[in-house]
Structure formats: C-alpha cells, structure tokens
Amino acid sequence: MTIENNHVVAVSYILHIIEEDGSKVLVEETTAENPLTFLYGVGMMIPKFEQNILGLKAGDKAAFTIQPEEAYGERQPDALAQLPIDMFKEAGTPPVGAILPLSDNQGNNFQAIVVEVTDEAVVADLNHPMAGKVLDFQVEVLNTRPATAEELAHGHAHGIDGTDAH
Ligand SMILES: [Zn+2]
C-alpha cells in the first residue's frame, strides 16, 4: 500500500534547519515509538512535505529539503506587533525572548517571540519561528492505510491504527 490522498500516514522524521552558512541545526526528532501521524492531503502538512512522500510505502525512506517560500515563508522584518503593556497587568510583563501564545481574528493560534519591552508596550515578532529557514527532512514511512470514515469526517487521524478517536 502506498501513500495517497485520504490515507493516514505515520512517519518518523528528523528535521534540521540549514543556516545561511550551510550548517545544520537539529530542530525536531520523532521516533518509531512516538511517530507523527496525519491525514494525508487535507492541508495539515506543508504541501511540499506531502509531495516528497507521495507514493512511498512502509519502510521507505526519503531525504529532501524545502525552501522557505514552500515552507513557512520568508521572514518579514516589519512583522512586529506593539501589544499594550496593560494587556499583561494580570499575567505579568513577559521578558525578552518569551514566547507568547496569540490568536488572530480568524481564531488561528500562533506563537510570537517578545523582542522588546518598553514602558508602554511589549513588542512581539509575529514571524513564524521557522520563517526564512530551509528545512531539511529525513523521513521514514512507518505505516500508511486508508483513513476510516470517522477520520475523514473529522478531518484528522486517529492514531496509527485509527483507534485513538477524538
Ligand atoms: Zn476525531
């Protein structure tokens, strides 16, 4: 059985980012015991990631890189938000480097990094942490199977074997 749309795919992978000087930095490593499981072809994953594993079967490996414009986009130097300091009265003012969980007006959650704190505002960098980065993946396919009707209705995978319903 090979990976195609509406399959539930389980992979282990190692993700590095490639810095401008060519050096690789390890970002994330999953294992066979704790794989990434996802519904293929519904937009959960970076499209280029899915394209690179299309047609593979369990046991197959793939190594590929994805350029920023096909991953999390280029960094926008002016994507900064001035958050009024009053917003942090109760929680306390976050330090520079803190990660803020925010949501946009469509209800999407994202994270922003505090880059400056002034008397009036907390300045947060709204760029995705992986923006501007070349992604380097080493992937091993652990399993692929047709999604269940319930998984298709929910739009997500219920674990490697479909029994982890939620
Ligand atoms: Zn579900």
UniProtKB/TrEMBL annotation:
Domain annotation PPIase FKBP-type: ranges: 6-84
Compartments reported by the entry: Cytoplasm
Q: Which UniProt keywords apply?
A: Chaperone, Cytoplasm, Isomerase, Rotamase
Reactions listed under catalytic activity: [protein]-peptidylproline (omega=180) = [protein]-peptidylproline (omega=0)
Q: Look up the signal peptide feature and give its range.
A: none
Give the family per the record: Belongs to the FKBP-type PPIase family.
Q: What is this protein called?
A: Peptidyl-prolyl cis-trans isomerase
